[in-house]
Amino acid sequence: MGHAAVETGSVPAVVARGLTRRYGGVNVVDGIDLDIEAGECFALLGPNGAGKTTTLRMLLGLTPPSAGEITVLGEPIPQRARAMRERAGIVPQFDNLDPDFSVRENLITYGAYYGARRREVEARMTELLQFAELTERADEPIQGLSGGMKRRLTLARALVNDPELLALDEPSTGLDPQARQHIWERLHTLRRQGRTLLLTTHYMEEAERLCDRAAIIDHGHIVACDSPTRLIHQHIEPHVVELRGDLALQWMGRLSGGEALDGLRVDPVGETVLIYGHERDSLLDRVEALIGPGYLYRPASLEDVFLRLTGRELRD
Amino acid sequence: MKVLDHLRQPPALSLRFSAVWLRNLRVWRKLMLPSILGNFGEPLLYLLALGYGLGQFVGEVESMPYMVFLASGIVCSAAMTGATFEALYSAYTRLTQQQTWAAMLAAPMNVDDVVLGEIVWAATKALINASAIVLVAALLGLVAGPEALLVLPVILLAGLAFAGIAMIVTALSPSYDFFLYYFTLVMTPMLLLSGVFFPLSSLPEAVQIGAQGLPLAHVVMLVRPLMTGGGIDAPLLHLGVILVYIVATYWISAALARRRLIR
């Protein structure tokens, strides 16, 4: 797609200091600092209710912060939020496409909210429809679109002003695996074009595959912020064995026999046992000696880091 | 922010509101015919049924045939209903179920722009409805002369005022059911006490004084002479009251919508 006007170079996309939001005496976001470079793909990761969406809304000037300072695309927020949003695109968590319009009319009407004339949007229509892969459905009402199509249209709608910064609130939540892959592919394309991508997600795979850096947020704080690889490296042993069902029970039984674990960390999660180790071979040898083959081995992932840092209790 | 903080802050005026107006116009154009018939059928029915039916018994009112008297009243009430329904039900649907407002606010639009766009659109609907009635009244020979065209700018202003009042209700409303209070407590009394169906002078004096606070009463006092060819008493007073309603209700509804949405 076109060429996003990304010549910001030295101007960071987002700078936030001491960002705080109180609701009813509770700090939902509690003193967050953020620095996001132009052209970076950055994820806000966190369990439900951690403060991701509130943080994103404050950065976009949709929620006024209780305390702290924000600059996005060089504009102070919320004072100059309108000027900033002229250069940004927003994909909300819940599709709010206009049900009174067709696919094409949705794009034209949304362009008008940016002050774009009908013919200006028409000029980019082919490109936007192709990007959303909705060319054949351009004149259909949006009620007939699948969830994935709607999300693609919402994404194309956010590109109607050729934005430098794209903010996405849980872009693939509620989509089936195919539709999700499709969205990720689109987001890769946008990143390659040099746009800054800022997204919230609780899909670790999404953050791992798309993002240069991720901030893990919990209880309104950033508990870690780095590239996915470095987060894994810093916060968790690199090798994991996963035992499920009978194997997990077997392992528990063996352990009660008083086996030494030398260097392995065991994390029982419900019916599953996770065993973390620094050395692959010694980890596998130990497990095999205790319960034989049939276990599942995998390298540690961002999800392991996430669960380690944010705990395992259920969130609503 | 507390509601008082929002009320202290004047709405930020900008031409951005026109995109909201344009959006609503585009939707309306798709359903133009049923919409016009729906909005204009009912007041027309009132005019014909009451005008012919009741007119037989009433004879002359304020030295004009009842039908002529009533036509100017129905123009005003059609404007009020048109603006009110649009600013209540349609705007509330866009605010809640359809989340159209949220989508607009993610673009470079402010709450004040969206509220103003909705109010101006609702006033446009009032103008469309009232114009249709004026046209029918003219065809039926119920209009004194071409100065009846001056009714249209008055109706546009009236539409802004009625839409503004309704927008306050919309910004406060927790559900569609809430609108019933507004209809029962505000709309119906206003419709009956503003001189639409019978002259204000036939009411007790206390009620007449109270009616001076109703915007619809002032709209009727401007529109009736324009349509029937009489002189207007204190036109600036009536215009002034309508303008105060326009400014005050936009100010208040924008503040309440900000409180509801910016959180």
Number of strands of chain A: 14
Which oligomerization state do the chains in this entry correspond to?
heterodimer
User: Low-confidence parts of chain B lasting 5 or more residues at pLDDT below 50?
Assistant: none
Question: Which term fits the overall shape of chain A?
Answer: globular
How far is the N terminus from the C terminus of chain A?
A: 38 Å
CATH class of the largest domain in chain A, named Alpha Beta
Q: Helix content range of the residues of chain B, please? A: over 70%
The number of distinct helices of chain A, counting runs of at least 4 residues, comes to 11
Q: Largest inter-chain interface? A: A-B, 24 and 22 residues
- Integer average pLDDT of chain B: 95
Q: What is the fold-level CATH name, i.e. the topology of the largest domain in chain A?
A: Rossmann fold
Largest sheet of chain A: 6 strands, mixed
Radius of gyration of chain A, in Å, reads: 23 Å
Give the strand content of chain A. 25-35%
Structural class designation of chain A: alpha/beta
CATH architecture of the largest domain in chain A: 3-Layer(aba) Sandwich
How many E-type strands of chain B? 2
* Spatial separation of the terminal alpha carbons of chain B: 8 Å
